[in-house]
Amino acid sequence: MSAPVSNGSQTEAVENHRGIGLRISLHYAALFLVPGVYLPFFAAWLESRGLHPTEISIMLAVGILMRLVAGPAAAHVVDRSGRRKLAILLLVWVSIASFALLGWVEGFSVMLLVWIVHSAAWAPITAFSDNIALLAATRHQLNYGRMRLWGSVSFLLAAYLSGLWLKGRDEEWIFILLLAGYAVLVGGAHLLPDLRLPLAHPRVGARAGAPALQLLRQRRFLLFVGATACLQASHAAFYTFGTLHWRSMGHSDAAIGWLWAEGVLAEIVLFAFAQQIPARLGGAGLLLIAAAGGLLRWSITAGAEDYTLLVILQILHAATFGAAHLGAMRLLAEGCAPETSATAQSLYVAANSTMLALATIAVGPIFAAGGGAIYWAMTVLSLGGGICAVMLWRRRDRLQFSAS
Fold first, then answer.
1. Residue 267: which residues within 8 A CB-CB, separation 6 or more?
2. Is the pTM of this model over 0.85?
């Protein structure tokens, strides 16, 4: 006699595979509208509210650090409940409410408190979305890169079009555009398929958080998070002060919006052809490509002012971010058991967030003192990520992350 099928499984069984892929793609498109405006222009909005560069870097860094606390805690609950979509819906509603409040409060201290609440809710959303996409890709033979690229398309359009819209307009429009992006995300989250897994019940006598501790005791997992954390943190200067730095050179918001969008366009091309990347290269090989791209990109960006050169350098975003992200997702998909995948993914996000937060704090005073010198520090981070990636490459035949 066959085992009974849950209502969630029955609903999932009748869904067309292509329909599931489309719904996840639309969710990614909604999700990345917010970063498309946030990354290029949020620091400028904070500056318009009277915050100093050091306060801006602290504000953004504390927000990033919340991923370290909120991400693993939420992932533990999700792995125990299996309710990934419900978690995303709740977190999205808290995110939009707290962000709306941010526009009404004044003063660094009060803004920081509201931002902490917002960041705690926002922190796990992308990781849980990636987790659902990876589960769908495995269960329904879908192409993760093709689904994820619609997030990049959305980011590109948001960055470029918001740059055009903001030209000659008050900085308060940045906040309005972001609030509109959050509203769209509410709808996007409801489109997600409700994919569920067998619950990750702990062994008798096991302590809460044991899977996370077991993963963190493994050298290969630590090398993985070390490599990805350094590679993603190498974008701290670009994310935090890229727009302000380019404005100081006299480049317009429209031109800056294109620089952001163009880098993501290169990323989209990589995601579109991700299936053609040779399997033998593996996740570790992609991380090596990201490290090499970072060494080249950031060392030249440190002294680059010519707009044409900046346009060329932004193409390397496909390597520094795109290859690093695909490499990490490939390693997580191949190396983790599905029932503890949210925990592994949240640890990956937490490690990346910690390093990115530290780098974000560090670049504030450096930017205030030396402008483009911040990119030399990013070159060092790319080197560190490359060293860890080389060590991972040597272990590429035994990269299983067990939490049992």
1. 152, 317, 318, 321, 322
2. no
